[in-house]
Amino acid sequence: MAWRVESVMDQRLCFIAACLQADEPMSSLCLRFGISRKTGRWCTRPVQAVVGCSSLFGSSTPMPYKHNADRRHHIPKMSFKVQNWPAYEAGLHRRGSLTLWIEDAALDCWQTFGPSGQARFKDAAIQTSLMLRMAFKLALRQTEGVMTSVLTLMGLTLSAPDHTTVSRRAVALPFMQPAWVPPGPLHVLIDSTGLQVYGAGQWLEAKHGAKSRRTWRKLHLAVDAASGMIVAQTLTDQDTDDPSQVGPLLDQIDDPVARVTADGAYDGAPTYQTVAAHGDGIDVVIPPRSTAVPSGDPNVPTQRDRHLAMIAEQGRLSWQATTGYGQRSLVETTMGRYKALIGPRLRARGFAAQQTEATIGVAVLNRMLAAGCPNSVRVQQVTA
């Protein structure tokens, strides 16, 4: 009869079995099996979930991350209910209506004609074509075909801008102000997100498979907390820091600002100085960093000093509840809506055209929000 040759897995299982019996110390077990104590040290952890151990000992000990699972505090998922569902559903239908994007005001200033009869399109025609392209995610030639069909169905004698004119005019298109800004003092939420672009690095990777540095753009948004409308936006390169865009964002807002809320990336004296220069009495809600220290003058505490004192006394969670910092999640929701409805990448190649594309995307997102917005409230779960 041939001798039975044990495999490495059998030796490991025998070692685990000897460790669980606890008849020998770890040092003698490691010496008997010819392994170091560092290798055998992992056996001091719960190991009955290893393949083969439960069948050897008939035990059903759970994995280490499931210990005390029955006594853990499980946070239930929050439930929300839309209170204005009929109006919101009607607004979702209006988002797909072509009449939403071509208004009488745009048709009145659509085009002029030169001495030779050639059509000269005004900025309203170019903006309408770009908004239609952005809303339905069309290419430039497809946008030209859709615009021609719509104008024909409307019985108008106007002509649609060709794709080359739209591409050329998009570089120098004037800045578009938000169509509607909520009145009164605003609670502005500021944050930024990244948008993909097709640059030289992406071409090298697609053509030759070479790995290179990824190129992308940063879209900085200022959102009104009450209505969810985007009241200001800027597009920069990937090397621009977030606090430097607080000033350009606030300069686009003509209405008074009551509060500015941002995440910890905006913490610092330059942000507070920029907000103070924009207007008096503006509250700044920015979580200080863990290494932040108070300013040098204890007699005249700044807003940042008061935040630090409140966090030191009550804790960071209590500070978030007191200052309403949780509303900052609304700007995160807005950035998610932008990438879901408009797209996570920019299709324009030049930086000027990319800025226009981001501006048009924000305008389309505001129009969609104005067409229909859900009024969601949290449903409180009653426990017996």
Could you give a quick summary of the protein structure above?
By secondary structure, this protein is of the alpha/beta class. The protein is built from 16 helices and 9 strands. Helix 7 (123-136) crosses helix 8.
Layout: helices, strands, pairs:
Blueprint: H1 8-21, H2 26-33, H3 37-40, H4 53-57, E1 79-82, H5 85-95, H6 104-108, E2 111-113, E3 119-121, H7 123-136, H8 140-153, H9 163-169, E4 186-196, H10 200-208, E5 216-224, E6 230-237, H11 246-251, E7 257-261, H12 269-278, E8 283-285, H13 303-314, H14 316-323, H15 329-342, H16 351-371, E9 376-379
Parallel strand pairs: 4-7, 7-8
Antiparallel strand pairs: 1-9, 2-3, 4-5, 5-6
**N-to-C span:** 69 Å
Rg computed from alpha carbons, rounded to a whole number of angstroms = 31 Å
Query: N-to-C SSE series?
Result: HHHHEHHEEHHHEHEEHEHEHHHHE
Give the CATH architecture of the largest domain. Answer: 2-Layer Sandwich
CATH class of the largest domain, named Alpha Beta
**Uncertain spans, ≥5 residues at pLDDT below 50?**
46-59
Q: Would you tell me the structural class of the helices and strands? A: alpha/beta
Largest sheet: 5 strands, mixed
Number of domains: 3
Number of strands: 9
Average pLDDT, all residues:
83
CATH topology of the largest domain: the name is: Nucleotidyltransferase, domain 5
Shape category: extended
Q: Which strand order do you get reading across the main beta sheet? A: 6-5-4-7-8
Number of helices: 16
Indicate the percent of residues in helices.
40-55%
